[in-house]
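Troubleshooting: if your tokenizer reports a length mismatch, compare your output against this known-good record of 376 residues.
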Amino acid sequence: MLEFLTDYTIRNVALGAALLGIISGVLGAFAVLRKQSLLGDALSHAALPGVCLGFIVAGTRDLGFILAGALITGSLAALFMLLLTRNSRLKTDAGLGISLSVFFAIGIVLLTWIQTTGNASQGGLDSFLFGQAAAILRSDLWIMGGITFATLAVVAVFWKEFKLVTFDPVFARTLGLPVLTLEIALTVMIALAVVVGLQMVGVVLMAAMVIAPAVAARQWSSRLEVMVILSALIGMASGVSGALVSALGRGLATGPLIVLAASAAVAVSLLFAPGRGVVWEMRRRAANRRSLRGQRVLTTLYRLAAHHGDSAYPSEQGMVDAYYGIATAPVMRRLQDRGLIQPVAHAPEPTPHWVLTPEGIAEAERILASLGAQEA
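Known-good structure output:
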């Protein structure tokens, strides 16, 4: 493992993946909370014509020109989407779909045209579709690091404004905040995150890096501050782990492995996150069912005792089973453990009988009073 960590290429890929995870995790949190999860998909596909235009202008695969072109067309696609949704009856999802389709189609046309020009430098340009992490150089890391640092600095400076626009844009507008400008700034920064990830995971898979870490983090916290930090950590961990697995398994593509790692984080979060995970929800529902069943049995014993005019009336286990059509012995044991009922002998019948304790009577009266208040 140590020899892998000292490898120049692997270090570059791991650092690039970490930077990608941080920026996409932080900005993806805002996109998910603003219900614009498709924004990353639209911007990543809209970056393809920019990649082609950057290559055409530079005449070679110059990363600076390519990333600048991707940022420009990605930003134009975002502005195009905003214009569509604000000046028509189209919803955000429809605007994103139109923007994605139009710009990606333009990118495919440009890519096809470049491949027919005979320019020897265009070899491998289509790798931006799926990424080519191994081609990352140390100079590329400086560019990615600069973009990441600048983006995080903007988020830190305008944290309160971005937070307010994300959760309550109407209130932000009443305070005099430039909501449209802030929304455009967030969108452009998401385009920056897409630009950072183009060479790592490519146009097609970049949307997952914007969405997955934020979705996973959302399951663990309801606070934006915590969610953003967790999203960045999950994105960074996914990037580094995907890069290392790719290095250990020769021939495995880095970009898809990074996305698979992020998807695994989402799956674990959806299943096991406290309070939100599927497993916790199943346990909560099971506990609620047990509690409801216990309340029903307890109130049944109380009504039987009231009907006979005897608070110490012994109810037979078999009679309660017949009433509910199921075996209620487990419910009885749970009620007994709580001190609400107790077993008694009722000669000459040898079958189990149960009576309410004073605590059980008080609990049954509380339950019936609560039900009565709800019905009223």
